[in-house]
Design a protein that fits this description.
The protein is mostly helical and about 290 residues long. Helix content is about 45%, strand content about 5%. The chain contains ten helices and nine strands. The strands form four sheets. Strands 3-6-7 form a three-stranded antiparallel beta sheet, covered by helices on one side. The protein has a two-stranded antiparallel ribbon with strand order 1-2. Strands 4-5 form a two-stranded antiparallel ribbon. Helix 3 packs antiparallel against helix 4, helix 3 packs parallel to helix 5 and helix 7 runs antiparallel to helix 8. The radius of gyration is 19 Å and the shape is globular. It starts with a helix and ends in a 13-residue tail after the last helix. The relative contact order is 0.12.
Length: about 290
């Protein structure tokens, strides 16, 4: 955006740093050598669950090296954008290798969803389909594909995974427009960052004609309506869970505290509004009806 040579030089150094990590046999970069399992979130001292969360810290386990779905949103889009800017084949290969290897480890073809993480010690995923994690994965796919050439033959499998997960998410959407924090567990609570993410994923996918608008516009509108219903007057997106550390137990995800003022809640809200506006050509929201509001 700025053409600042110093910023570009820093971006190149960062790409070199990211590509220097060791890799799994599948080629995924190992970012977490000693992942903490069952770590409770850091809650504000005045939060009703703060004391209980602190007591749980004694139960934290070292899960060893792990690959997390969150990284799909960090690595692929960055390397792909570097390729878009420079035209350097090196960055294109980095983008495809990093996100494809993560998909190989985390995508469950039978469930058509992403696992939260993969454990190197057992060479298996954790088997929990965490909602926000699936959204990190989807947005990572969208942004990686968005920055790579449309006619690149190697992106077709990634587009296929995107379509499959989006369709499964549509099937799992609740009638109120939201999704459960463990997507296939109706006993887990409905969590609000998920529909915000999904508005952005669906809007951007429709703009690139990766998915059919007639099928997914109702899903997006329902999700947007749910999100707007949960924005407080002070701008807080209510119902967002605090930081979600890894676990092998579904119960860990079911019991996480809600209503934090956190970047993974406020950020998706802004991203959703921007993507929705871009899709519909809205320059400002005043007086406009969005999500049925």
């Amino acid at each position: 955006k700025t053409g600042d040579a110093n910023l570009f030089s820093a971006a190149k150094r960062h790409a070199d740093y990211l590509s220097g990590f060791r890799k799994t046999d599948s080629g995924a970069y190992m970012r977490y050598e000693n992942a903490a399992f069952e770590l409770p979130p850091e809650l504000p001292s005045d939060h009703t669950d703060a004391f209980a969360a602190e007591q749980l810290r004694s139960q934290v386990k070292d899960g060893g090296p792990c690959i997390f779905v969150d990284s799909m949103h960090v690595e692929g889009p960055f390397f792909a954008k570097m390729h878009q800017i420079t035209g350097d084949e090196f960055y294109r290969q980095l983008a495809l290798q990093s996100i494809t290897s993560q998909v190989d480890l985390l995508f469950d073809p039978a469930k058509e969803l992403f696992n939260h993480f993969w454990i190197e010690q057992t060479r298996s995923p954790n088997g929990v389909f965490w909602g926000r994690g699936n959204c990190w994965g989807l947005l990572g796919l969208v942004e990686t594909l968005d920055h790579l050439p449309e006619n690149d033959p190697e992106i077709k499998p990634l587009q296929g995974v995107l379509v499959r997960v989006v369709e499964r998410m549509a099937q799992l959407q609740e009638s109120n427009g939201g999704w459960h924090t463990v997507l296939d567990d109706p006993s887990s609570y409905v969590e609000t960052s998920i529909p915000a993410f999904m508005v952005a994923v669906l809007a951007r996918s429709m703009m690139r004609s990766w998915i059919e608008p007639s099928r997914y516009e109702p899903v997006m509108e329902s999700a947007m309506s749910f999100v707007l219903d949960h924005v407080r007057d002070d701008g807080l997106l209510e119902g967002v869970s605090f930081e979600t550390f890894p676990s092998m137990r579904i119960e860990h995800y079911r019991t996480l505290s809600l209503n934090g003022m956190v970047p993974w809640g406020q950020g998706p809200l802004l991203v959703a509004l921007k993507a929705y506006a871009d899709l519909h050509g809205i320059n400002q929201f005043n007086g406009k009806r969005i999500g049925g509001k």
